[in-house]
Design goal:
Layout lengths: L3 E4 L4 H8 L3 E4 L9 H6 E6 L7 H4 L7 E4 L9 H6 L3 E3 L6 H16 L2 H9 L18 E4 L3 H12 L4 E4 L10 E2 L3 H6 L3 E4 L13 H7 L4 E4 L8 H10 L4 E4 L10 H4 L4 E3 L8 H19 L9 H4 L6
Parallel strand pairs: 1-2, 1-3, 3-4, 4-5, 6-7, 6-9, 7-8, 9-10, 10-11, 11-12
């Protein structure tokens, strides 16, 4: 009999890719519609970092044994509550790194070269006789905040643009050829373009604040493709409005899906709806990884991609 799996995110691709292998219960609106038998039989929950699962939600499925997060970030999952209940947690570590890195370069180019504005201008029938020249992207320094899979994929792309790369993360990566900077403020001071690709959570909450934006300066650009909570939105809006920084490219926001009207009114920011990692190839890889983790769970084997907190536990967790 196929494994019964609950999914609490409304993404057609994952419903299709996983539904072909499991008995899938759509729980995007909660678990109240499940029968007692379905609750008891459901041992796997599929979610995303922005949605996650609280301890109370885990208790809705009394025999839950595995939570699979489709992406790298899993901040919405109460991992400690899962551990206390003997529930294992996996995530899609690295599967979307290439797509997010591609999208980051697109946002950077669009913001610095004012592509949306130029597109509207050209469609209107105007031409560029009076347009202000736009800065180069190549040969400028990129500062990367967060040197995980996404940061490393981005650094390789930046190198192809002849961009020196500096980075700040919790610890230096001795095996990487890029310059490590000990503080985020110093990274901003030394960068033309600052990219945030860090996970959410208390450790990164408003890490990019007014002080960091001031250090980035009036010729600097910010790109955020990690989590909206990593940037102080009010400070960013103030910097964009005042010319404290030159511009920004944002794929993530603090109160998604709500985007502040003050941001949408600005010409010097390019906005996309948290879709940097949204590619069919990524969805297929993520679904394959979820199936591998479910197979390991069913066999009583170590998970293929456990979240870091799980790695500290017994080998079979």
């Amino acid at each position: 009999m196929p494994q019964q799996v609950a999914i609490n995110i409304r993404t057609e691709a994952y419903h299709r890719l996983l539904g072909a292998h499991y008995t899938l219960h759509d729980c995007t609106a909660g678990y109240a519609h499940l029968t007692d038998e379905e609750r008891a039989a459901t041992r796997v929950l599929v979610t995303a970092g922005f949605k996650g699962a609280t301890g109370a939600e885990m208790d809705e499925l009394p025999n839950l044994g595995l939570i699979c997060c489709v992406g790298t970030g899993y901040e919405g999952i109460d991992v400690q509550a899962a551990i206390a209940r003997g529930i294992r947690v996996s995530h899609g570590a690295g599967v979307n790194a290439g797509a997010v890195a591609d999208h980051t370069m697109a946002l950077l180019l669009a913001a610095v070269r004012a592509i949306p504005h130029q597109d509207r201008l050209t469609r209107s029938g105007a031409w560029n006789y009076t347009e202000t020249p736009r800065p180069l992207v190549s040969r400028k320094t990129m500062g990367i905040f967060g040197m995980g899979g996404i940061g490393q994929a981005l650094a390789r792309r930046a190198a192809a643009f002849d961009m020196p790369v500096l980075y700040h993360s919790r610890t230096p990566k001795a095996d990487l050829p890029y310059g490590y900077v000990a503080s985020l403020k110093e990274l901003a001071e030394r960068s033309d373009y600052l990219v945030a690709c860090v996970p959410g959570g208390p450790a990164t909450q408003h890490a990019v604040n007014a002080e960091v934006l001031h250090a980035l300066g009036p010729r600097g650009y910010l790109v955020n493709v990690g989590r909206g909570s990593a940037v102080d939105t009010d400070a960013l809006i103030a910097a964009l409005q005042s010319g404290g920084i030159a511009g920004a490219g944002l794929d993530v926001f603090e109160a998604e899906p709500e985007v502040p009207a003050a941001l949408t009114a600005l010409e010097n920011v390019v906005l996309t709806p948290h879709m940097a990692g949204n590619a069919p190839e990524v969805q297929e890889m993520a679904a394959d990884l979820i199936r591998d983790n479910i197979a390991a769970f069913e066999a009583g084997q170590p998970l293929v991609s456990p979240v870091p907190e799980m790695k500290a536990l017994a080998p079979t967790v």
